[in-house]
Request: fold
Amino acid sequence: MKNKLGVIVPYRNRSTHLEKFLKEAPKKLREQEIDFDIIVVEQADDSPFNRGKLLNIGVKKAKERGLKFFTYTGTLVRDSRPFCVNMVGRTLTEKQIR
Reply:
């Protein structure tokens, strides 16, 4: 299977932000010829926003889909090792991520 980037989006009550992201992000990723899968993880209760829990759920779902690389908030994660990356105008090879 070709490497595919999982884009994890923690979400709650920001529909206009999500709509804009879902419209613009795929364009930018396609321009860079990045194969991707966007995973939106929504917190539906009224508890304080728990971004960390949502990201953990997103990583679990990404792994279930067979994805090896994950990004959120400008950080690329592989096997629990974070790498800071600028996702705009840059693609990473497998060798660069190791």
Observations:
- Strands lie at 5-11, 36-42, 69-72, 75-78, 81-84.
